[in-house]
Amino acid sequence: MTIRAVLPAEGRDLRLDLFRGIANWAIFLNHIPNIALIWITTRNYGFSDAAELFVFIAGYAAAIVYAKSMATQGFAAGASRLLERAWQLYVAHVVLFVINVAVITWVAQTYNQSQLLNEFNVARFIDHPVLTLAQGLLLKYKPFNLDILPLYIVLLAACPPVLWLMLRRPHVAIVGSLLLYFAARHFEWNLPAYPSGGWYFNPFTWQFLFLLGAWCALGGAPRMRTIVWSPAALLIGTAYLSFALLMTMAGRFETLGNLFPEWLVGAFNPNDKTNLAPYRIVHFIAMAVIVVRFMPIDWPGLKSGLLQPLIVCGQRSLEVFCVGLLLSFIAHFLLEEISASLLAEILVSIAGIGLMTGIAYYRSWSKRLEKRPRSPPGDSSDEAIRDVEKLGGAKIANRFATADSRRRSPSVSSRTKERTAKLTTN
Question: What residue ranges do the domains of the chain occupy?
Fold first, then answer.
């Protein structure tokens, strides 16, 4: 079959890095239990939160990076790169898993905070370490806050055949993904977790958002441009976001909730995050439509120094995400032990975000060091250096050749002496 998808254009879309950085900062704050600063994140003002943003951008970025490889180099090359990335994420998860368990256990035992073992789902690991470790390596057992990375691993590992189909029949692929989403919700499909239940992020439903991002990257977004830029889309999207804000607040505050029918508030509270409720997807799409309208790819603000920390954190997303999860536990422990005041929350949160940003800048710097510098074409200084190197090489070669000829052939004076001796003899 011929490729019908529209391959992404060259160049980096800084909006993806920006919002991936926002997602990482929000995940860090949301994973610190019982702090007031979570009210600055989007999860308190609508149905969706940073998880949808993270998964959608992951699918979008995967299509940009690996679809070109699969289209130009073949299925095997693209699949190999996808599986290699999934393996890298798996290794990162295992390292994060071990460090997380070790740090939580050490803190709980050293500071006599045994409740942390249950709070962060580590108690079972203490009671049954070998079995629990094996289940953790199978991605079935996950301490608190370590749920989204296994989802990403599974989605990437299962992506090669779906990406192959999306390159050739993008609409068939996204419709098939949507059917799987509804089937999983109807039949309650999920992967098993240890010791019981299913995954907190159901891969059979969250795959739709991941593949929706891939579909948008491979031509879906340009096809929807007319709808996105229509006045009706802006009006409907704004109205839906307002409704989501109202229903979310009604679930948070009883006084406001009493103003609406109980069945209406109950339809959205509690919010079904595990199976990715349809109203969460619609909420995310409404936000995406408004963002695209008011933040085009060439938006000047993307080059401002104010947003650079977020963009760099988005570019080094894996490192920032892993560090942020560990820092969220440390922040929680410090607030429990030292102070739970608003000032302490602000200071700890700023310190955590500062460390995450510092790691991002360091990794970007180290990555640049790993790349061999390339000289711009037509650089006269480099050409002069290359000429000198060639000239020096030629001189060295001539010296070796001269020395070699001297070793192989007798000198002139030696040949003269031999001829004189022969004449004298004769």
Answer: 14-370
